[in-house]
Specification:
The structure is a single chain. This protein is an alpha+beta fold and 270 residues long. It has a domain of 122 residues. It is elongated. The relative contact order is 0.13.
Length: 270
């Protein structure tokens, strides 16, 4: 009993001291946080009245219109020696909205020569064709050297036809001062027709016959063939504006104006 009393006497002062100690404050997790305030929402009428529209218009500040600054040209500073103002009154001035046309100088017999052209006409064509001013001016300069072919020729009532290897065919109807020619770069398909030639004349066949029957106006102009086909050495030289053809069997030169055209004028024989 005395022992228990002694223990109580010892613990009693300790308990009293603990009760007098200041309590420890527990930290607040929401300290420093500002409480959010609810904003009042103003309901907008779907159909504003006249008073509301006037209030809205009065609240909008109109920006004043600013005038654009006018640029005043200043004098351009020149660096160097001033020689004075340029007087271009004497220089011819083209009219407003006018077009300046340059007229080409046509070639003539005096200008189309071996000296003025890079390629000279072949001597086998002779010189008689040069006397035709219209021919020399229209032909211009030669575009390539002359070429020789083992061709075919056939005589007709009012002209003749020439074929060279490769398929080119020319038909000539002669006249004064110029005649007419037809040209086919390739032999067309044959046109079968039951044509009977008058006695002593012939209907052309093969390539000549196809061209003779297919090109408009050719058969009526040339008429029927007077001879069979025969071989002949054909010399051709192409120019800027046409070509020269020399038939060696007859010794005749022809000038064709219009290079690789279906039809054109022919001058000769020379």
């Amino acid at each position: 009993m005395n022992r228990r009393l002694a223990v109580l006497l010892v613990l009693l002062p300790l308990v009293a001291a603990a009760c007098q100690t200041a309590p420890v404050a527990t930290p607040d997790p929401f300290a420093g946080v500002v409480e959010a305030k609810l904003l009042a929402t103003v309901a907008i009428s779907p159909t504003p009245g006249e008073a509301e529209r006037q209030a809205t218009a009065a609240a909008i500040a109109l920006l004043p219109t600013q005038a654009r600054a006018t640029l005043i040209p200043s004098q351009t500073p020149y660096i160097g020696v001033f020689l004075g103002e340029l007087d271009d009154s004497a220089a011819p001035q083209p009219a407003q909205d006018s077009v300046v046309l340059v007229t080409p100088v046509p070639l003539t017999a005096a200008t189309v020569t071996a000296q003025s052209c890079a390629i000279a006409p072949d001597d086998r064509f002779g010189v008689n064709w040069r006397a035709e001013t219209a021919v020399t001016a229209a032909l211009g300069c030669a575009g390539e050297p002359a070429a020789s072919f083992q061709g075919t020729i056939q005589l007709f009532e009012n002209g003749f036809m020439i074929f060279i290897p490769g398929g080119e065919i020319w038909a000539f109807a002669l006249g004064v001062p110029s005649g007419r020619y037809w040209y086919s770069a390739q032999t067309p398909p044959p046109a079968p027709e039951d044509i009977v030639a008058p006695e002593g004349l012939r209907v052309p066949t093969l390539g000549f016959g196809a061209v003779w029957a297919s090109l408009p106006g050719l058969r009526q102009t040339l008429g029927f063939a007077r001879t069979e086909e025969s071989t002949s050495n054909i010399i051709i030289q192409r120019f800027i504006g046409g070509l020269l053809i020399f038939d060696e069997s007859a010794g005749q030169t022809f000038a064709l104006l219009g290079n690789n055209q279906p039809q054109g004028s022919v001058y000769g024989p020379y």
